[in-house]
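Morning!

This is the sequence you dropped in the shared folder:
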Amino acid sequence: RSGGESRSDAWAAVSSVEWAARPGGGHSSRRSRILGLARGEYAFVNEGCIDEDRFHIDLTSIAWSDYDSLYRVFWNRCLGEGSYGQVYLAQHRPSKSLCVVKTIRREKEDTLKLKKEIKMLLLLAGHPAIVQLLDMVEHPRRKLKMLVFEYVAYADPRELMLHMNLDQLRYFMYHALLGINYAHSQGIIHRDVKEANVLFDPVEWKVRLIDWGFGTFYFPHVKHSRWPGTRYYKSPDLFLHYRYYDYSVDMWAFACMMGAAVFRRLPMFRCKTDHNSAQLIAIGMLLGSDDYAAYLDAYDFPLGGKFDAQFMAASVPRKRVKWRRLVNESNIDVAHPDALDLLDRLLVWDHEVRLTAYEALAHRFFDPVRRPDLESSAPPG
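The structure's back. Tokens below.
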């Protein structure tokens, strides 16, 4: 986008594209698909930083600060638990301000995964839609190491997504998307976008994207060997073990989160078992089998035809659903036509057709809450 181009101009440019094969199409050449080049503004971000220490994770050392003079942890106020340990409410003694600490299990203290998460948090520091890492401390008596984060008083994400009004929905999704776009602009894929990883304080109207433990750096044409994420939010290319997935997996997860709020159905794609085939069938029930077949034909998926028989047995409809069919008395107040249009451009089989975060920010659905000063790829000064 040129310096003088407005967000409206940018969205007009996106809308003017002939989406002849949309929702399932918009195809590039088969060769570009196999090589795996992310569409959009941030495909080569990390190639320009190849000599920086951001990628030398194995050489990273963590400097742990003194705990006693700085923090007080409320050990009776556990806020949650993750793969590293528990999360507790705490207080910064000098300022008396609240914060949270994430404890680190001893076997996790020096892992590459932890170092990578810290590295990404430092790279993303300063953006208002991304949780701020404040400190890294060690408790001398408990022999416990902890990451210190800013405190956000947040509502239960499951309840929140089912009861948002239209103003809250716009604000929440817009600011979550700001965080996703900024991460992508820094060459980082979150890989676990979901309600539980986006804190929202509906009183202070704070939104923070958290939990970067699954985050990874994106490089064009480089294969992945892992397909992490939470099943209800994983994009089809992850289930099919596509080796060259990119930022678009975050956009699928974002759309699943938004769809859950718009249609009051959590999760967006419901299934009764935890099998990958059942989740793909749940997606197919809304997106149709015709576009799925075209998707398989366009890419070389390691698990390409594995789920064809299950699709047939489950009587997956050929055509995708019109989103207005999911609108009813319980959700008509938030199922705005512009919201349905945005979902239509994100919830598609083909990952190359999904809007990028940069494009989605320009969508007219967000016009009432737009903050041009926050839409650049640099944190505000």
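Headline: DSSP finds twelve helices and ten strands in the chain.

More detail when I'm at my desk.
O.
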